[in-house]
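We read letters as residues; the fold follows as C-alpha cells. Both lines appear below.
***
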Amino acid sequence: MKQAAIVVVSYNSAGVIGRCLDSCLRHAADEADVIVVDNASSDGTREQVLRRPAVRLIPNSQNRGFAAAVNQGVAAAGSPCALLLNPDAELMSGLGPMLDACGKGAAAVGGNLVGEHGEPQRGFAVRSLPTAAALALEVLGVNRLWPGNPVNRRYRCLGRDPGQPGEVEQPAGAFLMFRKDAWEAVGGFDESFFPLWFEDVDFCRRLRNKGLAVWYDPRALARHRGGHSVHQVQWEFRTLCWYASLLRYASKHFRPAERRAVCLAASVGAVLRSVTGIWTGRSLTPVVVFGKVIRLALRCMADGRVGRVSPPAAAQREAGPGSRVK
C-alpha cells in the first residue's frame, strides 16, 4: 500500500487536468495513488483521465459539489494520507516533506504554491482562520480597497515569509495533505458548503478545535494557475454561492453577535455593490443579484440559517462548479 492518495476533484477541467496528472505521476508515482473524482464533466475531462491508465477515475452522474467529491475520493483511498490537489495545480516536488510532517503528528500540512512565473502566492497559500472582523471587512470591500489594513494583513498572513515552515491555521485546500484518521475524527468535509467555498477553511478550523496540529512546509512545491473553473460559472450563481458559504461559516463558528455583525456587513456591502454595479455596468442585474444576497444575510441574521443556493438551469447544464478555486 502506498503512503498517500492524491485526490483531484474535477469539473470541465480538460484544459488543465492533463498537466496536473502528469506531474503527479512524474513526481509522486512511488508515494501515492492518483484518484480523480469527476463531477459530471461534459468537456472531455474524463477522456483526459482515461488516457492515463495509472489514474483511477470515479465518475459522478451529477455535480455533487466539491466537499462531497473530496469525501468520496478520500473514502475510496486505502492509504493513511490523502493529498487534495486542484486540477489547475502541478506538482513540482515529491510528497516527502508532507508525509514526514504527517508522520510526526501533523493532522494536515499545506505546501508552497507559486504562480505560473514562480512567484509565491502570498495571501492564498497560507491564511489565518477568518475572524468576524476579517469577513466583515471582506464583504464591505475594505480588504480590496485597503489590502494593507491590519485585519487583512493578519487574515492573509501578508507578513509571513513563504519560505518559513511551521504551524499555521489554514493552508489552501488547493494543495493540502491530511491524515485519513484526522479526516475521520472530524467527520470529513462538511457537505453543506455546497457547491463550494469555505469548506477547506471549515475543515482546518475543526481540526484545530480538536487540538490537532496543522502545518506548512515550503519544501513541498506546486505551481498553481488559480481561477480555472470559477470563470465558467455564471456571475450571479458564483456570487450567491460565495456569500452563502461565507454566511454558513459565520453561522457555524461565530458567536451570535459576531454572526449578526457579519450579516449586517454583508447586507451593507451588497447595497454598495448594487449601486456601483448600476453605475459601472448600466444594468439592473446587480440589484437583482445583491437583493438575493441581502435576503440570505437577513435570514442568517435572524435565525442563523442559510439556505442552499440552486443554480439556474443553464448553469446546471453548462457551468456548475465542481473543482476547488479561490
